Structure formats: structure tokens, C-alpha cells
């Protein structure tokens, strides 16, 4: 079907990109054109509160709606975007669009007024001297309070942060923006930055969640990360929850929130808030303009 074809297409695209430097130039040109043509789109994956079973936020995930290759996932273009510096304007678009969409969903009553959004930041973006200003402008333009936005950073970005980048992070935190560590446990493993940096969220990498039920060492790692998060007063979010056993084990372990295909795949439409428990559920999939 069309889906399989789309996947094969981006794999070919990805192969070409890897194979020849000249294609990296072509990809960069494609990205530049896509920015002009407004061809970047966001998909949204629900983040579920493990206490209530309800969606409390979304993670915003960028895609490129390419006229030739179809919908391309970040794996097909993020590296070229990062290397070429185009990730900065792409990232600004993602920030503005995520805030704008969140405001529209709230205004339409599709999500509750305290519903939040997360956005991924690349290394290049995180080290921009005007990061806090860019984020502040996106929030103000949409009329969203800073506490509704979480910025996801990798361990590498946090470890490499120089004093001026750290100052940007502090400034964001003082504004009320949440900072989270994405893919926790897969990067450099110095834990001292948890104390040093203004981080309030840790996301347990899906590779550990995948083995949670079957692999005793993965279970120990997930347990330890959740305890660590609790001890430091951080919100813990498990990534990549794909089955009900993982879900209930995470609940038992006291993990705060979860994301994964079991709970909702990334999609163009706003999330349905009542994902797991009965209550007021509004089907927003009929209104694709929001
Ligand atoms: P991430 O931030 O760790 O995002 C989670 C990825 O895991 C997403 O892939 C999501 O679709 C996928 N995922 C979610 N639930 C499951 C599950 O249950 N099982 C499995 N196997 N996968 C699941 P996606 O959308 O392809 O994004 C990949 C990565 O690209 C992201 O990883 C993030 O690092 C990066 N990315 C995405 N959007 C942006 C963006 O706007 N800016 C930047 N700089 N990076 C982005
Ligand atoms: Mg992320
Ligand atoms: Mg992640
Ligand atoms: Mg991940």
C-alpha cells in the first residue's frame, strides 16, 4: 500500500544521503526549499499520566512533507539539518507551531487548559545565544504560559553546555519553562549534571522500557532511574511503552508519565485526552484544521 511505498522511498532517500556527500548538499537544498514552502509538519504523541490514565501533554515530533518522497521522518533529515545549521530555523518553526497548536486546542476545548507540549531541541539550537528569547517569543505569540512548555535535551548537550548555554537554560527555567533529559541512560553517564543543571524531567529511554518485563537488568535500570528521579524531585517519563505489562509495571514502580505506541502513536491530529480510563472523551479527529 501507500504506507509501505512511503517507507521504502525514505529508506532509499536515506541511503543516498549516507552514500554520497553530494546528496547531503541536495538534502540541504531540499530542506531550505521546504522551509520556504512551509513543508515541515508536526505530529503529536500523547504523554499519559500513570496515576489517572489521562493524556496531560504531547511530544511534538517534526516530519517533512516532501513532494517527491512523501512524509519523511526526522531520521531522514535531522543530521543534515544539524550539520548545515538549518536545524535552527526548522527548530524555531517547531517551537512556534507547537505553541500555536496547543493554544488552538485549548481554545477549542479539545484539551484541558493545563495541557502541555514538549519540543525536542538539537545541540545546535540549544547553544544559540538567543535561545531563551526565541522560546519566549514563541510562547508570547501563542499566548501560552512558559510552564506549559517542556524542552527535551540530550545528555550530550547538557554535558557539553558552556557557561553561556547554561545561562540560557537558567533563564528558561526562571521563565518557568521545563527542561527534560531525553533518552536518559543512553548518553554520557555522569549524574552530577542532574544536580548542577536546571532539569525537571527525565525520560527513561525506550531501550530500557523494551526489556522491562523480560530482562532483569533492564528492570533494575528502570527501577533505579525512577527512584533517582523521585529522590531528586523530578518528573519521570517512560518512553516506548508498547504493551500492557510494561504499562502496569511502570505504574507499580511509581513512574509519573508514559508515552508509547500502546498509548498513542504520533499523529497529525490533536490527542484524545481520555486514553485509558472512562470519562469525557472528545473525538477531535474530525477537525483536522486545529
Ligand atoms: P525522541 O525525542 O526520543 O522521540 C521519540 C521517538 O520514538 C519518535 O520517533 C517516536 O515516534 C518514537 N516512538 C514513540 N513511541 C514509540 C514506541 O512505543 N515504540 C517505538 N519503537 N518508537 C516509539 P520520531 O518521531 O521518528 O523521532 C525520532 C527522533 O528525532 C526523536 O527522538 C528526536 O530525537 C528527533 N526529533 C523529532 N522531532 C524533532 C524536532 O522537532 N527537533 C529535533 N531537533 N529533533 C527532533
Ligand atoms: Mg524527545
Ligand atoms: Mg526520547
Ligand atoms: Mg528515544
TrEMBL record:
Residues 24-280 form the EAL domain. Coiled coil: none annotated. It comes from the Bacteria. This is Diguanylate cyclase/phosphodiesterase (GGDEF & EAL domains) with PAS/PAC sensor(S). It comes from Kibdelosporangium persicum.
